[in-house]
Amino acid sequence: MNYVDTEKSYGWISIILHWVSAASIITLWLTGMPVSIFDIVQFPTPFVVNLEAREFVYSIHAASAKFLLIVIVLHVSGSVKHLVWNMDDTFLRILLPKDSGKENDHQ
Length: 107
Hints:
The protein is mainly alpha-helical. The chain has a two-stranded antiparallel sheet. A hairpin with a 3-residue loop joins strand 1 and strand 2 (41-43). Helices cover 57% and strands 6% of the residues. The longest helix has 36 residues, at 51-86. The two termini are 34 Å apart. The protein folds into 2 domains: 1-48, no CATH class; 50-97. 1% of the residues are buried.
């Protein structure tokens, strides 16, 4: 299985992100929270509100947010390290897309 999407199939990263999105919606509903789209449309929960589940999910949410913040800081620090100390082409590879070798048909 591919890491990223191809013309023939989805990569495993896309598949995991879709399942995480679906699990997030179900988790919101199980904890009694409505699912809203930009605070314009709200879909109320079809389940009975469970306060213990809500507290548990919130604790996981808070821990995940802290973990994600640490990962983002480490990631940005690593890219700055490559730019300042290593002085290699890693930072340029981040900014410039890889040439696919195909002709540009938009001329």
